[in-house]
Amino acid sequence: MHRKSVYFLSLIVAMLMTLGVVMLFSTGAFARDSHGDQYFFVKHQVFWMAISLAICIVASRIDYHVLQKWWWVVFSLAAVLLVLCYIRPIGMKINGSWRWVNLHFMNFQPSELGKLASVSFLAVWFSRHEAESHTFVKGFIAPMACVGILVLLIVREVDLGSTTLICGTMFAMMFVAGSNLIYLGTVAVLGVGGILFIAIHMPERLGRLMAFLYPDKYPTEAYQTVQGLIAMGTGGINGLGLGMSRQKFSFLPFAHTDFIFPIIGEELGLWATLLVVLAFFLIAVCGMMIALRARDRFGMLLGFGLVVILVFQAAINIGVTTSLLPNKGLPLPFISYGGSNLLFCLLTIGILINIYLQGLPDKPVKTEVRLRARTTPRL
């Protein structure tokens, strides 16, 4: 099954990207910022898809251990770009958040690079300090402090979605690497409290939280979520038909980005949304199989972290659009419009493919090294 996992993974990703292009054909023409061109978003997404696929292929052919050697370059670049978000005219404020940098030839969201930097650092750290992963300093304080540098910069952007995503992935990787459960439990409670504290002291985020708890009392703040639920309910089991969505006619904001999942439900029905959920579940299964067969501990932790951050993002998006979670601005991987996120997602797939190729039995790796790569306190 492991030998087929990479083929299933590639096929599922291709199907999700195809679905994304099809749904952009349906929703993009009615978006407010389409610039009068009904194919504006489709053309841009296909352009980014071509670039991202090329990077995916390159990443699949380059030994993933390059991240083990040069992780600090990725980390430093992510930190610099996150700082540039606040400096005009390089930094760009969109929808109330400083999340973008203008590189003249493209607009880029540095938090996407921050995801790769965080996962790479944690994989390197816990592969180097395997025997001390349960200690307070090297197994808890040091890795959290380093990742915290990027997290604080992202929080300052008012990007609680990416903050939650990186922190959740860090928690999962530290758990698998063998960090003390008492320390992790404590930081989990403090982390949730910290996010609530930040949300309460930011009027816009507080409004989203209250709208999630009491949507009938906060109709303005809950507008997106309610319209998404209307779209899902209108579609029913079989959907209204491709292109027949009503909510995309300016009723549901960001129908081509963060809230594309409800439009899938409205046009293609419940079956299509369940297939999307199944697709991400299979990505998780295939990715975990690849990670567990990695040739060393670094590859195992890197693969695990990349799979978690990818699937966790999909879970958050689906949870938000179905009113299971408070509203956060995270796109649906491979489907939502957005070049930066698509680039990161396909880069992730490329690295996973390389981990798979490096872990094949015919590679000249000693048996004891291969077995050690699969041993970890909790996986």
Briefly characterize the structure.
The protein is mainly alpha-helical and 379 residues long. The protein contains 14 helices and 3 strands.
Keywords:
about 375 residues, mainly alpha, three-stranded antiparallel beta sheet, 14 helices, 3 strands, about 65% helix
How are the secondary structure elements laid out?
Layout (H helix, E strand, L loop, with lengths): L1 H26 L12 H22 L3 H20 L6 E4 L2 E6 L4 E2 L1 H19 L8 H20 L3 H18 L3 H20 L2 H11 L9 H13 L24 H9 L1 H23 L4 H25 L17 H20 L8 H7 L6
Helix pairs in contact: 1-2, 1-11, 1-13, 2-13, 3-4, 3-5, 4-5, 4-6, 4-12, 4-13, 5-6, 6-7, 6-12, 9-10, 10-11, 11-12, 12-13
Structure description:
- With 379 residues, the chain is mostly helical.
- The chain has one domain (2-66, 158-168, 180-373).
- The chain contains 14 helices and three strands.
- The protein has helices at 2-27, 40-61, 65-84, 110-128, 137-156, 160-177, 181-200, 203-213, 223-235, 260-268, 270-292, 297-321, 339-358, 367-373, and strands at residues 91-94, 97-102, 107-108.
- Helix 3 (65-84) packs across helix 4.
- It starts with a helix and ends in a 6-residue tail after the last helix.
Order of helices and strands: HHHEEEHHHHHHHHHHH
**What sort of overall outline do the alpha carbons produce when their principal axes are compared?**
globular
From the alpha carbons, calculate the radius of gyration and give it in angstroms.
21 Å
Structural class designation: mainly alpha
How far is it from the N-terminal to the C-terminal residue, by CA? Answer: 19 Å
| Oligomeric state of the chains present here | single chain
What count of helical segments does DSSP give?
14
Supply the number of structural domains.
1
| Order of strands across the main sheet | 1-2-3
